[in-house]
Every structure is written in structure tokens, then in C-alpha cells.
Amino acid sequence: MVKVGVLGAKGKMGTQVCQTVEKTEGLELVAALDQGDDLERLVEAGAQVVVDFTRPEVVMDNLAYCIEHRIHAVVGTTGFDAERLDTLRTQLAASPSTGVLVAANFSIGAVLMMQFAATAAKYYESVEIIELHHPNKVDAPSGTARRTAELIAAARQEAEAGPIPDATTTALDGARGAVVEGIHVHGLRLRGLIAHQEVLFGDVGETLTIRHDSMDRESFMAGVVVGIRRVVDTPGLTVGLEHFLDLG
């Protein structure tokens, strides 16, 4: 039985995580904390793994506490750049038995979408990303879009692909989206959406579109459960749920 604490327990994702932990065999919800709650309750409850779906401005303090107290962490909060990841690696060096998983997306389909995009990247001259989310999302581009762009850029670099063609010389600010690792990323925010992403590839005479849609937050829960079960046996920092899946 893995004892689980949830941070951000009153949010939409946190609420779903709590419900999932309570009904999943082998997991026990021992602490459900939200803004203003004392993190000491995690230790008092004997939490072995914490699932964090909070906000970028508080997540690093949460993780510092967990690492200090040797509590494993599964993190779905966004806002992780190279500097933050390096900070976690430094903190984990002082707690070598503790594991932290930082994942841009916990949907199995979204993880596969990112992997398929990285595979396709070396074969196409052009590629752009469109991410579509609900209007309450605080970051843009999404963490999934950033991670996808990074994977695509790495695959193109390995394949020694040339620059992506774009003859634009005049454009309104933002018309071509953000640029992540040389990949253009466009963010849409619309009421009624949950989480959606398209990766569009193009070459002479053809295009390829890889799209993933999450219509319900339940779609993320299978990945969260995988993360909880695997992180206890995976010390150090793991970036990306794909490392916990058998993708061949």
C-alpha cells in the first residue's frame, strides 16, 4: 500500500487525483492539502508520495519540503525550465533515495503524441505546433507544447535537418506565435476546451497532422497512477512520463 498526499487537492486536477487514489487498489490517500494548509501534515500522515497540481509560484517550495523529508513526488504543475530542473537535481543530490517525476502531461495518448511527433520530425521540412486549452490555464505555451517542441528540435538536430522555411518579413507581434527551440508554437484559449494539441508537419506535396484531445480530466489519471507506483523505485529526477512507460 502506497500512502499518497495530494497538494492542490481542491483544484480540478487535485480533486480528480484524490478521487482516483481513493478508488485505486494499492494506493491510500492520507493527506489532501490545499492553499494555506501546513505541509507538516504530509509527514504526520506518513505520506510516501506526493502528487502536486498546484501553481508555478509555489511548487518549488513544495518540492524542497518533500525532498528534505524524503517524500517522493509526482508533479503535474507547469512552469519548469532548465534552471528549475537543475535546482531539483541539486536538491536531490542531498537525498539520493528520493524520486521526483516532472511530467508535462499525464495522458497516455498525449505522451504517445509527443513520441510520434519526435519520430516524424526528422522526415519533414516544416513543423509547427498548435495547443488549445480552457481559458483558465495560467501559462502559454502549455508545458506539453514546450516539451513537444523540445523533443522535435532534438530529433531534427540529431538528423542534421536544415532550418524550417519561413519567408515572413512583416508580421504583427505574436502573429507567428512563440518560438521554442526554433519551433513555432501557437496557443488558443477557448471556453469549452480541456486540453488539445496538434503537431503539423509539411513537405513537398504532403502534410501530416498528429492530434491529441483530452475531453475529460479523467484521461490524465492513468498516467498519474503509473507515476505514483513507479517513482518510489526511481530515485533522482525523471522528466517526462514516457520514461515510466514501455514504449520500446
UniProtKB/TrEMBL annotation:
Pathway membership: Amino-acid biosynthesis; L-lysine biosynthesis via DAP pathway; (S)-tetrahydrodipicolinate from L-aspartate: step 4/4
InterPro entries tied to this protein: DapB_C, DapB_N, DapB_N_CS, DHDPR_bac, NAD(P)-bd_dom_sf
Major site of localization recorded for this protein: cytoplasm
UniProtKB keywords: Amino-acid biosynthesis, Cytoplasm, Diaminopimelate biosynthesis, Lysine biosynthesis, NAD, NADP, Oxidoreductase
Domain Dihydrodipicolinate reductase C-terminal, residue spans: 109-245
GO molecular function terms attached to this record: 4-hydroxy-tetrahydrodipicolinate reductase; NAD binding; NADP binding; oxidoreductase activity, acting on CH or CH2 groups, NAD or NADP as acceptor
Residues of the active site: H133, K137
GO biological process assignments: diaminopimelate biosynthetic process; lysine biosynthetic process via diaminopimelate
Domain Dihydrodipicolinate reductase N-terminal: 2-106
EC class (word): oxidoreductase
One Pfam family this sequence matches: DapB_N
UniProt: NAD(+) binding residues: G8, A9, K10, G11, K12, M13, D34, G76, T77, T78, A103, A104, N105, F106
Keyword set includes Amino-acid biosynthesis: yes
The EC number(s) this enzyme carries: 1.17.1.8
Chain sites annotated for binding (S)-2,3,4,5-tetrahydrodipicolinate: H134, G143, T144
Keyword Amino-acid biosynthesis (UniProt): yes
Subcellular location: Cytoplasm
GO cellular component terms attached to this protein's record: cytosol
Recorded catalytic activity of this chain's protein: (S)-2,3,4,5-tetrahydrodipicolinate + NAD(+) + H2O = (2S,4S)-4-hydroxy-2,3,4,5-tetrahydrodipicolinate + NADH + H(+); (S)-2,3,4,5-tetrahydrodipicolinate + NADP(+) + H2O = (2S,4S)-4-hydroxy-2,3,4,5-tetrahydrodipicolinate + NADPH + H(+)
Assembly description: Homotetramer.
Entry-linked PANTHER family: 4-HYDROXY-TETRAHYDRODIPICOLINATE REDUCTASE 1, CHLOROPLASTIC-RELATED (PTHR20836:SF0), DIHYDRODIPICOLINATE REDUCTASE (PTHR20836)
Family the UniProt entry places it in: Belongs to the DapB family.
Function: Catalyzes the conversion of 4-hydroxy-tetrahydrodipicolinate (HTPA) to tetrahydrodipicolinate.
Entry protein name: 4-hydroxy-tetrahydrodipicolinate reductase
